[in-house]
Amino acid sequence: MSDQPIRHGSPFAPRGADTNVDDVDSSADRSASGAGAAKGATTQVGAGAITAIQGNALEGPIYGAEQSILVGALCGAAVVACFSLACVAWFPPGGTLVSGLGCALSVIGLFSRRPVWGSVLLVLHLCAFAACYYQLFLA
Questions:
Q1: Residue 3 phi/psi, 5° resolution?
Q2: What percent of the chain lies above the pLDDT cut of 70?
Q3: CB of 42 within 8 A of CB of 24?
């Protein structure tokens, strides 16, 4: 067992001669005192600040290679739309498969910088899929 006292607070808070972790108020103590300031000249870094720095992987814009993949999927959905519409007229069995691929690419493209185009292409592919399916099985 060591003689050092148990440290309270953030493990990332600076520790030195000028900083004493016990001198820093917690947020509950600050709201109760109403002053809003710590007892000393120190500040406390809370878990909220660390979360704000790291960010959440599911929120906010996507940059880098992931954004390029999403835009590529959207462009692929636009190219596949041409083949999907051609399959409606000439080859309905293949049109169901091509339209299904276009739907998958459009869903991936919904998360890109251009979600409106992704949704327009998704509706287009769904309509082409329905037309091919109708010609294939119901007509």
A1: -85, -5
A2: 63
A3: yes
Tokens of 136: 């294939």
Cβ within 8 Å of residue 73, ≥6 positions away? 105, 106, 108, 109, 112
- Rounded distance between C-alpha atoms, residue 116 and residue 136, angstroms: 30
Confidence tier at 41 by pLDDT (50, 70, 90): very low
Of 135, 130, 70, 133, the closest CA to residue 104 belongs to 70
- Closest C-alpha to 131, from 80, 76, 91: 91
pTM over 0.90: no
pLDDT in tens, 85-132: 999 999 999 999 999 999 999 999 998 888 899 999 999 999 999 999
In the block, residue with structure tokens 């091919």: 132
Give just the sign of the alpha carbon dihedral 79, 84, 89, 90: positive
97-110 pLDDT, tens digit per residue, is 999 999 999 999 99
Q: Quick count: other Cβ atoms within 10 Å of Cβ 103?
A: 21
**What whole-number distance in Å separates Cα of residue 12 and Cα of residue 54?**
15
Are 20 and 40 within 8 A, CB to CB?
A: yes
